[in-house]
Amino acid sequence: MSAPIVLAPREQTLQQLQERIRGMQDGVPRVPLPTHPVLDGLLQLRTGGAYEVDRASLGMALLATPSAEGSWVAVVGAPDFGVEAAAELGVDLTRTVLVPDPGEHWLETTAALVDVVGVVLLRPPVGVTERTASRIAARLRKRSAALIVQGEWPGAEARISLRSSAWSGAVAGHGRLRSRRVVLGVQRGSAPVREVELWFPSAEGPVVRIEYGVERPALDAPRMEALA
Description:
Helix 5 (about 130-145) links the parallel strand 4 and strand 5. The chain is built from five helices and ten strands; from the N terminus they run αβαβαβαβαββββββ.
């Protein structure tokens, strides 16, 4: 006899039920993917999922951990993708496939890459319909891959966004801006946004989570960055 679905309490109930049903429908279990440690407690990437980001740098950060742990990754539709910045964040460029300008074949290109790599970062050139998103979702589940979308994607499991940011390091307009303090927001479905503060970058490395009570770089002459 099959085991019943056991529901967790409160806001996670619906999301877990949806994931369980999708997994049973496709017959392919959804497994966790390596996820950047700064997102501990906020987000766990899983195979079969699509995730929205509002900045290219956030997409790079999500690619970094799977890439560093041996997965192949791909970037589609981002001609200005900064390979040096990606490498600094930890992306293994020797296991990265770049398709800067797929043109009108962006959907076919994305689908083909889902078949052969673990994580695809996509910047769609046009709005995506629910039908298109559903087709890609089925392929993601079948191939045990994940999709990160810079932009909007119907049915995305979570949206990761940069909510505020301030640079530091320059004094009186002189010197190099060394660190940026940001507030990162993670929203799953209609649940409230959960936030975490990061140094992105920091004086000590590409991304560091701010833990209160731990010494942090001084904010010399912070400069607020305008967010689109």
